[in-house]
Specification:
81% helix, mainly alpha
């Protein structure tokens, strides 16, 4: 539901739904954080970025990245998750650029490019 609100531009409703979902998942999987859905964290990062809360967006994107990185390490044949990792490098690069951290942005974009090349 939160993603639907986000796509409709209803940011307050989207944030409420997404944060509630994340809270439920954190409670259920308190001893297994790897089971928290990286896409939920990615959506919250997108929402925060839309609101110009770059610090919060970066935290959500980094957490999603950590979970995906662990998944890919355990299942290297999962191409879709690998592609999501590359996309998160792009998003982190955009945030770094928006914060004026151009070297960090360049590094993130290069990682994204390198990962996408690995897919082809």
């Amino acid at each position: 539901m939160g993603v639907l609100y986000l796509k409709q531009g209803c940011l307050s409703a989207a944030e409420s739904c997404l944060r509630e979902s994340l809270g439920i998942l954190r409670h259920i999987f308190s001893y297994e954080p790897q089971n928290i859905t990286p896409s939920l964290l990615d959506n919250l990062g997108d929402l925060c970025r839309t609101r110009r809360d770059l610090e919060a967006a970066e935290v959500f994107f980094n957490e999603a990245y950590f979970l995906l990185e662990e998944h890919v390490a355990n299942e290297p044949e999962d191409i879709e998750r690998y592609r999501q990792l590359a996309n998160l490098h792009c998003k982190l690069g955009q945030i770094s650029g928006e914060k004026g951290e151009y070297k960090a942005a360049q590094d993130q974009f290069q990682l994204c490019i390198d990962m996408m090349k690995d897919l082809h």
